[in-house]
Every structure is written in structure tokens, then in C-alpha cells.
Amino acid sequence: MKTILNVIWLIFAGLWLALAYVAAGIICCVLIITIPFGIAAFRIAGYALWPFGRTVADKPSAGAWSTIGNVIWLLVAGIWLALGHVVTAIPLFISIIGIPLGIANLKMIPISLMPLGKDIVPVSRA
Question: Which InterPro entries match (predicted)?
Fold first, then answer.
């Protein structure tokens, strides 16, 4: 079932969201100081391509720098990426098949707003 949902997700929302995260990652990798943001964006792009069967977990080693970085990310890119999740979730809720996809899309908003200090793990490991 996860594979079927992931394929449907990839066609209707995943590809576009992953491209947005890759674009944010490339922009962040332009400057040396923002490379951690770029790495986080690339990590989330992989999650946006194939989300079912994986979840977000807190890194135990995250500290104050992650919090400061998350505030910067929120102001620069997080709001726009979260808005992209909302915009792509609304049409998914129209059909019955799209409801789980819309819910998955809304579950990605917290990591799009604050990606640092988070890790994407299989559901069985969470």
C-alpha cells in the first residue's frame, strides 16, 4: 500500500515539491554559511519524493545553533515552502484517493518550517 501511495504522491505532488526543495537547496548552497540549510533542503527533497513509510524524528544532538538556524530558515524559505504544501494539499483533498496524500502533505509542514535538528527515518525505526 505504501508503494502505491508513494507512486500516486510522486505524480500529483511529490515531484513539484521536491523540485521546490532542490531549488531552495541550490540557492542555499551558493554561500558557504548557508550550506547546512542547503543540505537540509536536499534531505527534505528526498522525503518529499517518497514520504510514505518514513517519518521525521528529532536529532538528540541538536542544540541552540539548530534553533537559531531554524528561525533564519523560517523567515527566508520556510514560510514559502509551507505555503507550497498548503497549496498542493487543497486539490488533493477533493478526491477520496487524494485525502491520504493531502494529510501527508500537511504533515510535511513542520519540517518545512523548521528542518534543522530533524532526521528522516523509516517508520519502523521511529
Answer: Inner_membrane_protein, UCP028777, YccF
3-state SS string for 37-50: HHHHHHHHHHHHHC
pLDDT in tens, the chain (126 residues): 788 888 988 888 889 889 988 998 999 899 888 898 899 999 999 999 988 889 888 888 878 888 898 998 898 888 988 998 898 889 889 988 889 889 989 999 999 999 888 888 888 876
Query: Which parts of the chain are beta strand (E)?
Result: 54-58, 118-122
CA distances from 106 to 57, 58, 68, 69, 101 (A): 16, 18, 24, 22, 9
C-alpha cell at 75: 523567515
Is the pTM higher than 0.70? The answer reads: yes
What are the beta bridge partners of residue 57? Answer: 119
